[in-house]
Amino acid sequence: MTWNPSDDVIAVQRGPEPGGAGGAYRTFAATLRGLRTTFARLFEEPVTIEYPEEKTPVYPRWRGKHKLHRFEDTGLEKCVGCSLCAAACPADCIRVVAAENTPDNQVSAGERYAAVYEINMTRCIFCGYCELACPFDAITMGNDYELADYERTDLIFTKEMLLADHPERTPLRREGE
Amino acid sequence: MIAEVGFAETTLVQVIKVLVIFAFILAVTPIVLLVERKFMGRMQSRYGPNRVGPYGLLQPLADVVKLLSKEHSEPRTAVPWLMAIAPMISVLTAVATLAIVPFGDTREDALFGADYGLYGIDVSIGILFAFAFGSLATYGFMLGGWASGSKYSFLGAMRGAAQLISYEVALALSLLGVVMTAGTLSLTEIVTHQSDLWFVVPQFVGFLIFLVAGFAETARAPFDLPEADAEIVAGYNTEYGGMRFGAFFMAEYMHIIVFGGLCTALFLGGWHGPGPPVLDPLWVIVKMAAIVLLFIWVRTTLPRLRYDQLMSFGWKVLLPLATLNALVTAIAVVAW
Question: The whole model's pTM is what?
Answer without folding.
Answer: 0.77
